[in-house]
UniProtKB/TrEMBL annotation:
One of its GO terms (biological process) is tRNA modification. This is tRNA uridine(34) hydroxylase. It comes from the Bacteria. Its EC number is 1.14.-.-. The gene is trhO. Keywords: Oxidoreductase, Transferase, tRNA processing. The keyword Cell membrane does not apply. Pfam families: Rhodanese (PF00581), Rhodanese_C (PF12368), UPF0176_N (PF17773). InterPro entries: Rhodanese-like_dom, Rhodanese-like_dom_sf, Rhodanese_C, TrhO, TRHO_N. PROSITE patterns: RHODANESE_3 (PS50206). It catalyses: uridine(34) in tRNA + AH2 + O2 = 5-hydroxyuridine(34) in tRNA + A + H2O. It is an enzyme of class 1 (oxidoreductase). GO terms for molecular function: oxidoreductase activity, acting on paired donors, with incorporation or reduction of molecular oxygen; transferase activity.
Length: 327
């Protein structure tokens, strides 16, 4: 995908972050936060709830630094941990700032990670602990994510969405008994509630990889993470392991070894699967002949990334009102 936002010589960043904290008026903060992003060229997806803030955004190095300073200057978000990745240009095409009941849909609204959660392990601490025979590593992500990449010997769950975690994890309780349990996910946010839920269920030695897979790759080289990590921007999947990389996924269509992830071009399917470049072009970004022939199939540009339907969402809501009050 040609990135029209890329300016030659400029450095761009992607920021992945979250912060569990109390926000008394999410709607008011949504508008303030949204307008800051518009004024400073920040694109991405941000969720605001009474329980905190969660986002992935992209922008120039200067814009992202200004954005981090803005977030961290607010006492409520002073402990926010930003994962910073260098990229070639914007990894989003729009800015979305929405208010939702939770900053990650978990079905565990009664759990407050500021009061109870697993012990945070730094990437280096995780690296030292992961091969301990008394440790089990538990993946808190969805099927399409862990099928593309996961830690060696990790326990995975058959879930399509994190809200299924509380019930599905019960199926592996026998494997967790008497062990040190280390949960992990992409950036750490799901593990805040996943680890707290395990503590609630009576498990005692519960840990979580602080900053998730992304931070582990950035700070500890990604050793023993097999495959690629699915991300929620137009890169779709990123390399993590710089030490002993391994491809574990196969093309959904032809079965050849492949870690090239796409979303099916049929919006009614939108299957998240690995598809090799040859099959990608042959099937025009679709995951099957049926999807290829669907009348609503989206044009394929070789990336397999499609901007989500905005459902009437207006990214400039409040912009004119602010402009008229500041003139």
């Amino acid at each position: 995908m040609e990135n029209q936002n890329l300016t030659q010589g400029q450095e761009y960043w992607v920021l992945l972050y979250y912060c569990y904290t109390h926000i008394a008026d999410p709607e008011a903060y949504r508008e303030e936060h949204h307008l800051f992003c518009i004024e400073n060229g920040i694109l991405g997806r941000i969720i605001i709830a009474h329980e905190g803030l969660n986002g992935t955004v992209s922008g120039t190095k200067e814009a992202c630094q200004k954005y981090m300073d803005y977030v961290l200057s607010d006492e409520r978000f002073k402990n926010t941990d930003f994962k910073i990745e260098k990229v070639q240009g914007h990894t989003f095409t729009k800015i979305h700032v929405r208010v939702k009941p939770e900053i990650v849909h978990s079905g565990l609204r009664h759990i407050d990670p500021t009061q109870k959660t697993g012990i945070h392990l730094s990437p280096e601490e995780f690296k030292k602990l992961k091969d301990d025979p008394d440790v089990v590593i538990l993946d808190a992500r969805s099927n399409y994510e862990h099928k593309l990449g996961r830690f060696k010997n990790a326990i995975t769950l058959d879930i399509e969405n994190f809200r299924e975690f509380p019930e599905k994890v019960k199926e592996v309780f026998p494997l967790l008994q008497g062990k040190k349990i280390v949960t992990y996910c992409t950036g750490g946010i799901k593990c805040e509630k996943a680890s707290a839920y395990l503590l609630e269920q009576g498990f005692e030695n519960v840990y979580q990889l602080h900053g998730g897979i992304i931070k582990y790759g950035l700070e500890a080289g990604g050793e023993d993470f097999e495959g690629k990590c699915y991300v929620f921007d137009n890169r779709i999947a990123v390399e993590i392991n710089k030490i002993n990389p391994k491809v574990i996924s196969h093309c959904y269509i032809c079965g050849t070894e492949c870690d090239r992830m796409i979303n099916c071009a049929n919006p009614h399917c939108n299957n998240h699967v690995p598809i090799c470049e040859k099959c990608g072009w042959e099937y025009e970004g679709a995951c099957s002949t049926e999807c290829k022939s669907h009348p609503d199939k989206r044009p394929y540009d070789g990336t397999g990334y499609y901007q989500k339907n905005t459902n009437g969402y207006n990214p400039y809501k409040g912009w004119k009102r602010k402009s008229t009050t500041t003139i």
